[in-house]
Amino acid sequence: MDTETGDIRAVKFTSSRQGDSPLLPELPAQFPGDEEVATVTADGAYDTRRCHAAIIAHGAHAGIPIRRNGRA
């Protein structure tokens, strides 16, 4: 979501059988190539190495809290 305009910038729907976090690495492909992503904010379900790697690869900051059973 664009915090300045409130526009949704990327979306992917999942079934109840599918987890959400495995799809996060696919979301940046929905942005135009010249569009910068500064921060990706998500809940603790997205606190995975794969999600963090995808966010870093896109040059963004991850605003994701550590999962309840996670470690800093």
Can you characterise this structure?
- The chain contains 1 helix and 2 strands; from the N terminus they run βαβ.
- The mean pLDDT is 83.
- The protein is low in regular secondary structure.
- The protein starts with 38 loop residues before the first strand and ends in a 9-residue tail after the last strand.
- The chain has a two-stranded parallel ribbon.
Features:
72 residues; little secondary structure; two-stranded parallel sheet; 1 helix; 2 strands; globular
Question: What is the fold's blueprint, element by element?
Answer:
Layout: E1 39-41, H1 49-57, E2 61-63
Parallel strand pairs: 1-2
* Uncertain residue ranges: none
Q: What string, H for helix and E for strand, traces the elements in order?
A: EHE
Integer average pLDDT: 83
Q: What kind of sheet is the major sheet?
A: 2 strands, parallel
- How far the N terminus sits from the C terminus, by CA atoms, comes to 26 Å
Number of domains: 1
Helix content: 10-25%
**What's the number of helices?**
1
The side-by-side strand order for the widest beta sheet comes to 1-2
Roughly what fraction of the amino acids lie in strands? 5-15%
Number of strands: 2
Instruction: Look at the helices and sheets and give the structural class.
Output: little secondary structure
Structure, briefly:
With 72 residues, the chain is largely without helices or strands. It has one helix at residues 49-57; strands spanning 39-41, 61-63.
